Amino acid sequence: MGSLPSRAPQTTSGQVILLSLALAACNGAASSAADATSDQPPPPEQSARDALEALSTTPEQDDQLLALVGKFAIVLSKSGKARRAFTDELLKSLMRGRVEAAVVDPVRTTFEDAIRDATPEVLALLNELHEILTPEQRAKLVDSFAARAEDAEAKRKAHNRQMIDALDIGLLQKISIAKAMRDKLGDLRPAFAKMKMDAQTAGKAFKEDTFDATELAIAKTDLGKLYLESIVILVGVLAPELEHEQRVKLAGIIKHRLSGGGRHRS
Fold it and tell me: According to the model, what pLDDT value does residue 74 have?
């Protein structure tokens, strides 16, 4: 197909979830905050665009898809103010060396509400995408995401190791952080496992002619809340363990990712 607009819509961490859902490509949101190394893969929205451009679409479909991307940009831009407030407060907490729930929770819940409010429009756009594509194109799109997801776990682990190297985290810090992460993220693991299964089910459903995005199990999951809770936990664990210079470096990484950046250059 012809190239989609060269300037992709700016997406936030929570919004990436919605865009990924809309393209049956939700591949584990919790890890993306930590995936900020110089050789990481393109962000989900770029992967989605690349996949769409490989579908051998007609000129008429090209026009429809261009219009769809524009609609996504409008929907996703609505939560920009809430995203910026959340990012700013999270970075302040990191630099203070502690996360205070009384300060962070209000901006987090506001951002969650913005993501939640956008979900019906995103699901409608997903149905529109389904109508635009032929059965063969839908299958190719879903299969392309499935292929990309096969090695995602290994890549996430590699990215985490690279981030640790970039922050120059010492052995004792690593031990303390690992234990705290296991303790605090343990309750969320079943939810992320279910999200992964629901995403796979959504991909299969997208191939069918009877697809309806509003009936997907993953569409009824509060993905924004799950993702943002994991981000706050991550920062809450790291902030008191890191030295000032490490916190400064991590703040740059988090700001880059939460503002919709792809690759981070240190």
Answer: 86
Q: How many residues comprise the chain?
A: 266
Q: How many H-runs (helices) and E-runs (strands) does the chain carry?
A: 11, 0
**Mind spelling out the 3-state secondary structure of 55-121?**
CCCCHHHHHHHHHHHHHHHHHHHCCHHHHHHHHHHHHHHHHHCCCCHHHHHHHHHHHHHHHHHHHHH
Average pLDDT over residues 231-257: 88
Q: What amino acid is encoded at 123 in this protein?
A: L
| CA distances in angstroms from 222 to 32, 121, 155, 204, listed in the order given | 17, 15, 26, 21
C-alpha closest to that of 40 among 162, 144, 146: 162
| pTM given for the model | 0.74
Q: What are phi and psi of 5, to 5 degrees?
A: -50, 140
Distance of alpha carbon 207 from alpha carbon 132, whole angstroms: 12
79 burial class (0-12, 13-18, 19+ CB within 10 angstroms)? Answer: buried
